[in-house]
Design brief:
three-stranded antiparallel sheet; single chain; 3 strands; about 55% helix; mainly alpha; 12 helices
């Protein structure tokens, strides 16, 4: 059981590691901004000094090598406000600062553009976009916000989103009596129980993440299914030892078990109720649960 628990991976993240096609390489030409736009260009003081020689490091950042590391670094700087809205990003200077090739810079800027963080236009150059343009449901942006200056707002918003999504998903999943899925969910609860007994918060967190992701995926609603990665990201930044939240507890484990029991009997109302009770266990959720309206 321990081996299985430690080899589990969290839900899939955004598919943003592909290489640019030849036709896209010229979208981020060097010296793309006019001289006047270079006034006020950031000096990169906020950058991680270890990434100053990113070319010397082993592949990291979720296994995406130099490209992934640069995306991570620039993304964090944009989300934290170190690179403010409408600021020009000159690829040549980025390449020199981080000692990476122009191909790596172009790939990284393309990924950030797909996330809504930057825009590239002819005769204007590449610039940071305002928060209103960001894809706030992107798992990477969720993570960057959760560990940056906006951490309190991000965690509150994630709690509110989970309260909206997961009870409904639990109710819908109860109508899909797949034995293999029910067994997998039960396995996750068992793993969480073993992990809690051993004080292994990391394994508990991974099993918890897979439990919630799988539950949403089997709800039978394809739009909800696309949100499973968001819930996984929410769990990673709102619970577990990395976020410094409370350790796993008996109440949380018991509610997971009740959800499994409700799914096994096809009781959607009970599954929904158990999920609401579970969400109330998580730190901070009680502050965002909507109060009943008076009719």
């Amino acid at each position: 059981m321990s081996t299985l628990a430690h080899t589990m991976m969290t839900a899939a993240r955004s598919a943003d590691s592909g290489l640019t096609s030849p036709g896209e390489l010229d979208r981020y030409p060097y010296a793309e901004a006019p001289a006047v736009d270079r006034v006020g260009i950031p000096a990169w003081e906020g950058a991680d000094p270890d990434l100053g020689r990113v070319g010397r490091r082993a592949a990291g950042s979720r296994g995406r090598g130099l490209h992934g590391q640069l995306v991570q670094q620039l993304g964090q700087m944009i989300v934290s406000g170190d690179l403010g809205a409408d600021r020009p990003l000159v690829p040549e200077e980025i390449g020199q600062r981080f000692e990476v090739s122009r191909t790596v810079v172009r790939e990284s800027l393309r990924v950030l553009e797909a996330k809504g963080l930057v825009s590239a236009r002819p005769n204007v150059g590449t610039r940071v976009r305002p928060v209103s343009d960001w894809n706030l449901l992107d798992p990477d942006i969720i993570e960057w916000r959760a560990f940056g200056p906006q951490r309190d707002d991000q965690r509150r918003e994630l709690s509110e989103l989970r309260w909206t999504i997961e009870p409904l998903a639990a109710r819908l999943a109860a109508g899909h009596g797949r034995e293999d899925v029910q067994q997998r969910l039960a396995d996750m609860v068992e793993i969480m129980g073993h992990a809690m007994a051993q004080g292994d918060a990391l394994t508990f967190s991974r099993a918890d993440s897979e439990f919630h992701s799988l539950l949403i995926q089997v709800a039978g609603n394809r739009m909800l299914e696309h949100l499973s990665g968001i819930v996984s990201a929410a769990l990673q930044v709102s619970g577990g030892p990395v976020a410094g939240c409370d350790r796993p507890n008996e109440a949380s484990l018991a509610h997971h078990g009740r959800i499994c029991e409700a799914l096994a009997t096809g009781d959607g109302a009970a599954a929904e109720a158990a999920m609401r009770q579970l969400l109330m266990v998580h730190p901070g959720v009680e502050r965002v649960v909507p109060a009943p309206r008076e009719h």
